[in-house]
Amino acid sequence: MESIYPRRVPVMGNLTGNGWTVASQESVLSLIVVLGSSVSLVGLIFAFITYSLFSDLRTMSGTALMYMLANMFLTQLFYVVGVGGVQEDNLCLCLAFGIHYLRLAIISWLCVMTYDMLITFRNNVNLNPRPEPVNVLISRFVKYSLFAWGVPSLSVIAASVMRVTVNHQTIDNLNPYNCWFFEKTIYNVTFAVPALCCFAAIVDSLVRSWLTARATVGLQVTRRPG
């Protein structure tokens, strides 16, 4: 995978007429990333506080959303740390592992939220909410957590193994990738494939939720004017 920063951009003349250098291009892009991430961090903090303060929002989906917001916050924070490049190779590698884990955890929790939405629609198909026993909710949340935290963990373990055994041209210094990504092969196998599977599951849950909602509306008795 190429660096997140472009190696070359079309020459744009500046006031001196010398054009932009690569260093100036990366400085501008770094500033944009830092500013954009800072705005995102503020929004994520307010969203997390909102769900923390109001108990009515802390449903199964609301709790999953809080975990996803926390992962998004850490991801944006790690982006800011790695945007300028990390000189220490071990720290850069740890940063890449952390971002890899967090990005996949975000997608996994989104998958959990859409599946839980489908379960909620099915359980309330008659528009009369049925409260579920606490033990059922706890059991379901444990399963959700095992999936949402387990998939990224297995992915990171697989990436570690591939760096040691499969990839014989391991790049120890990930600074060309801004410490954001692994090498192309490792990234495709350990991130792109699981992410695509999760996105397929998300689309499936959304479609089935829509069909359930549509069927629910069709079951309602239409009142005719007397």
Automatic annotation (TrEMBL):
GO terms for biological process: cell surface receptor signaling pathway. The chain crosses the membrane at residues 28-54, 66-86, 98-121, 141-166, 186-207. One of its GO terms (cellular component) is membrane. Residues 29-180 form the G-protein coupled receptors family 2 profile domain. Its main location: membrane. It is a multi-pass membrane protein. Keywords: Membrane, Transmembrane, Transmembrane helix. Pfam families: 7tm_2. GO terms for molecular function: G protein-coupled receptor activity. Gene3D superfamilies: Rhodopsin 7-helix transmembrane proteins (1.20.1070.10). It is found in: Membrane. This is G-protein coupled receptors family 2 profile 2 domain-containing protein. It comes from Acyrthosiphon pisum.
